[in-house]
């Protein structure tokens, strides 16, 4: 029987994680310096901004793949900074909806151009076709893993 070996740097899940961490560190550093936001706080703001009627913390966790403690801590911090507002959830009394305050909307409007500029900077050495293919591959990986998780979940 032949022993299998694994070279970490050639293992695609590791490479994806490594690159994701590099990108996240770059983005986090930029947001921290410019806006005093951690990456989890920025993600919460972005999801809330995309949800004009409000969004639950649970929905934020599902959309961002952040755990509920991370989402909760980010939300508490943003509420304390008056960037988010919490209001009752008419359809579910056990949860609440988060919306951007006027200050949160202003901050989001200030961040978006910088976020898009940072994205352009990171991917500036790739053609539009390469970026589109990369995006399509990431979405394929997402779909495969989400499908596998759904099939593995107990009924």
Automatic annotation (TrEMBL):
InterPro entries documented for this protein: HTH_MarR-typ, MarR/SlyA-like, WH-like_DNA-bd_sf, WH_DNA-bd_sf
A Pfam family reported for this protein in Swiss-Prot or TrEMBL: MarR_2
Gene3D superfamilies: Winged helix-like DNA-binding domain superfamily/Winged helix DNA-binding domain
Domain HTH marR-type: 1-143
The protein's name in its UniProt record: MarR family transcriptional regulator
Native organism taxonomy: Bacteria, Pseudomonadati, Pseudomonadota, Alphaproteobacteria, Sphingomonadales
